[in-house]
Amino acid sequence: MIVTTFPRTVRVIEHTLIPLKDGTKLAARIWLPDDAEQNPVPAILEYLPYRKRDGTYERDALTYPYLAGHGYAGVRVDIRGCGESNGLLFDEYAKQEQDDGVEVIAWLAAQPWCSGVVGMMGVSWGGFNGLQIAARRPPALKAIVTICSTDDRYADDVHYMGGTLLTADGLEWASFFFGSMCLPPDPILVGDSWRAMWLERLANVPPSRPADRLPARDAALVGLLAQGRRYRRDG
């Protein structure tokens, strides 16, 4: 059963831009209690590369009205270089992604409809960056809900398990994400700049192969193993 009646009336800001210090603007879709300007509420952020306009649109339309109807601001933000957000995405969970997330949290806390308190939630990518941003301790971030995620991406992850690359997922996920990164922003939302944004993305689509990002500790281990083999040969 889909719940459509809530304690508080809900309104939606279908598309807004969150300005960052370097001039980049991140695209957001926001659900609010109708009286949030008069009675500010905590904000719950989900921060993903999966395109709020089409990739998670239907899912978001079920999740966020429930949050707003129960007294929260539900905020779905596209990561830099994804959807209708400016800039370029070069990797998963990069420091730039975390830096931007810290700025987004500060922006949310400063809005007139927000009580100054922010939480994060997410499954997989949103779970990972929730952990990573929480480790940065932005002052307004008070809680996270992190699902299907880990603080050790190379021991217990969708790409690696026990330090071993999971090749089946690597191919499936890489194919999906490569296709998603090649999609244009919506011209209805971004206007005439959509084509220039799209072409810039196409020229800078990052590799989506986890094997390209061998962790430093694994690289060191490979070196030690190679050294051990030399010792055995020489002995």
Secondary structure tally: strands: 8
One letter per element, helices H and strands E, the order comes to: EEEHEHEHEEEHHHH
Stated plainly, the CATH topology is called Rossmann fold
CATH architecture: 3-Layer(aba) Sandwich
Major sheet: 6 strands, mixed
Strand arrangement in the largest pleated sheet: 1-2-4-3-5-6
Mean pLDDT: 88
Give the total of domains: 1
Overall shape: it is globular
Q: Provide the β-strand percentage band.
A: 15-25%
- Any idea what the radius of gyration is? 20 Å
Which bin fits the share of residues in helices?
A: 25-40%
Distance between the termini: 70 Å
Quickly give the structural class.
alpha/beta
The number of helical elements comes to 7
Please write the CATH class name: Alpha Beta
Low-confidence stretches: 228-235
Task: Please tag this protein with its features.
globular, disordered C terminus, Rossmann fold, alpha/beta, 235 residues, 8 strands, 37% helix, two-stranded antiparallel ribbon
Report on the architecture of this protein.
By secondary structure, the chain is α/β, with parallel strands linked by helices. The chain has a single domain, classed as Rossmann fold. The protein is 37% helix and 23% strand. The protein contains seven helices and eight strands, in the order βββαβαβαβββαααα. It has helices at residues 57-69, 95-109, 125-135, 167-181, 187-190, 194-202, 216-234, and strands at 10-19, 25-33, 41-48, 73-78, 114-123, 141-147, 160-161, 164-165. β7 and β8 (164-165) form a beta hairpin. The longest helix is centred in the last third of the chain and has 19 residues, at 216-234. The radius of gyration is 20 Å and the shape is globular. The N and C termini lie far apart (70 Å).
